[in-house]
Amino acid sequence: MPNPNPIRPVVVCIALILAQSAFALSTDRSQPMNLDANQQKSTQSRTGKAGDPDITILDGNVVMAQGSMQAHADHATIYRNPSGVADANGNNGSLTRILLTGKPAHLQQIHDGDCGLMTADADTIDYDNLTGIALLTGNVTVIQHGKGEFHGQRMRYDTNTGEMESGDASPSSRVHMVMQPKSQQPKSAPGGDCTKAAGAH
Description:
This protein is mainly beta. It has a single domain (24-181, 192-200), classed as Lipopolysaccharide (LPS) transport protein A like domain (lipopolysaccharide transport protein A fold), CATH 2.60.450.10. The chain is 8% helix and 45% strand. A hairpin with a 2-residue loop joins strand 3 (54-66) and strand 4 (69-80). The chain starts with 7 loop residues before the first helix and ends with a helix.
């Protein structure tokens, strides 16, 4: 009898195989973020309270860089806490969310440990800077160079743990993976320092 839920085992494989050593470069969040675009519009919080963020909208050939993290998109919306609002770590005015859209929007980042490059393309990339969770939707392609690649319509990516999850039990849900043999996987960086590798990619 055919398996009524063929997707779930594939989802588990994504989390276990692609996630190995896929932690985002730990120094990225401490770096300044550089932004370029054709147009920008910034709106300050009306109340200065939590839940009413400062918002910056960028349009046209948006380029973002923070450490090893680089992003390209047609449009970007950036949310920040007002200057008097502290996040869970006690930081005032911190960036809370980045929403990227494009055909496609592109994100890439170096991982700690093996210094491997992860690239992601999707119609929408919604990144929560406080939790480190990125939701990718629409024509998603994620490639961990030397390890494998994933294609689907939706992915939840935890940049803190490297866990990736996609697909569901519905008959229309499909995901596709390509796994490289171990001999092609990248080796760990000497001393675990990936900062030089970040400049080389």
